[in-house]
Amino acid sequence: MSIRIEEAYQHCPRCAAEAPEPGKVPFRCQHCGFTHFFGPVAAVGALIIDGQDRLLLVRRARDPGKGMWGLPGGFVDQDETVEQALNREIYEETRLELDSLSLLVTYPNEYNYRGVVSPVIDLFYCCRASEPGRVELEPAELDDYVWVRPTDQYLDNMAFPSNRRAIEFWMDSGAG
Q1: What letter would DSSP give residue 30?
Q2: Phi, psi (deg, nearest 5) at residue 119
Q3: Which residues pair with 142 in a beta bridge?
Q4: Which among 65, 70, 77, 174 counts the fewest CB atoms within 10 Å?
Q5: Are residues 26 and 47 in the same domain?
């Protein structure tokens, strides 16, 4: 069973008063005035393209989406820019270093982690890697990769709908 993050707030995190309307956005405590808006967290995804105009897809080794395909990427940490997060995540997951990146498109998403669903805004970048042939996966996160011209075989098995939408946008834009 999953619950939306705003529904998980049954009590005020500041004063512990009972929530008058659990699930309402924004959360407003009538006792102490604490307010929380439940805005989306930022995540990045990389459409890494090799010299043959193929796209790097990675297979997830853990939930959410274990065994499904996706784009390398992850969450933006506090005190880092989106571009820093993209470079960090790509290096952590694939050991690739990016030469160039440009923002392609953004999409809203939801992330279900251990039954709590949080809103996310995904920022997708088109990227080139300095040595695309040197992929080394982080086995705790990913268990396989392919360089492909995306087909329905892969698109129908994407872990996150926003990844599929970004790939389709890339293909429709004439870049893919």
Answers
A1: T
A2: -75, 140
A3: 60
A4: 174
A5: no
